[in-house]
Amino acid sequence: MDFSSDNSWSASAEILAAIAEANAASAPSYGGDDWTKKLHARMSDIFEREVAVFPVATGTAANALSIATLCPPHGAVFCYESSHIAYDECGAPEFFSGGAKLIGLESADGKIAPAGIEEGLSWLRAGDVHQAKPSLVSLTEATELGTVYTQAEVAAIADCARAHDMRLHMDGARFANALVHLGCAPAEITWKTGVDALSFGATKNGGLCADAVVLFDPAKTREFAFRRMKGGHLMSKMRFASAQLLAYLENDLWLRNARRANALALRMAEGLSRVPGIEIGPPTEANAVFAYFPDALSKRLLEAGVRFYPWEPGKNGRTLMRLVLSCATPEDDVERFLELAARSARPA
């Protein structure tokens, strides 16, 4: 039973079939193919306006190149202190931007807020060349703690950013999971609320190896194209990435996959809440469950071969553990795990 990450699971059959179909003949390279052209049209339809779409191989590339495009080398980026860009990307945003400074903000539920941004700004002297210039806010949707920003929350952050002449980036590695939780259209949680660029994730939700950057500001399109090439992320056989993304969007596969993963996560959270000694942490709003496990119980489950991992260091004999559900996770695995957890929690 593997609940370590949605990256661990298989790609959707529809996406594998699309890759095979794209492999049937030759096609123009570097994005000149029909699949990439269709992807631009499809994304523009989904987001209800003309957008620029740039397929890339990884979410790290999507984030780092987006940030580099929106933030100057002397700029400051406000983000959640344990965000993926700050904690899990080996300094890629700083590297690709030429030295932009990431400023982490505290949050109990993974969601930053205007008050936190304002507090962070209070430590910077506006216009002082001795300090980084506030230039960008980056938020993650769904968050690293499995919570989801509402439209009102994103709009409030965007308003705060604009008031201080900053742009807004959204890391949407699990964008589909957030979308099905909110039940809104993609436009309503992105450009209509003030988002300038979206890192559009597919790999964690049934993709094989394809994410994308969606730019809502046409003025940044040319610059991003050069940055992607210089950064080594312009794929020569772009059609294989674009074919994945097209299949991901076809017949709402991306939403169906996310809906299943979210439902399994809710089932997991509800079941764990009934296990003695386990306490659910932040609310389960996407496809990740965070719960405080007694360390002895975690040890027994890990020794039994279950894969999941600690999110925060243990305190008072308990540790906040993360369990991630995938669109490909067998439903039986959830039930088997809950039964195992209940048995393992009983006194010897």
What does this structure look like?
This protein has 348 residues and is an alpha/beta fold. The protein contains 13 helices and eleven strands. It has helices at residues 13-22, 34-46, 59-70, 84-87, 92-97, 114-122, 151-163, 175-182, 221-230, 238-249, 253-272, 295-303, 331-345; strands at 52-56, 75-80, 101-105, 133-140, 167-172, 197-200, 211-215, 279-280, 288-294, 309-310, 318-324. The chain has a seven-stranded mixed β-sheet with strand order 1-7-6-5-4-2-3, with helices on both faces. A four-stranded antiparallel β-sheet has the order 8-9-11-10. Helix 2 packs parallel to helix 10 and helix 8 (175-182) packs across helix 11. The protein is globular and about 65 Å long. The two termini are 24 Å apart. The mean pLDDT is 96.
The CATH architecture of the largest domain can be given as 3-Layer(aba) Sandwich
> What would the CATH topology of the largest domain be?
Aspartate Aminotransferase, domain 2
CATH superfamily of the largest domain: Type I PLP-dependent aspartate aminotransferase-like (Major domain)
The proportion of residues forming helix, as a percent range, comes to 40-55%
Q: How many helices in DSSP terms? A: 13
Q: What structural class do you assign from the helix and strand content?
A: alpha/beta
Q: Can you write the helix and strand succession as a string?
A: HHEHEHHEHEHEHEEHHHEEHEEH
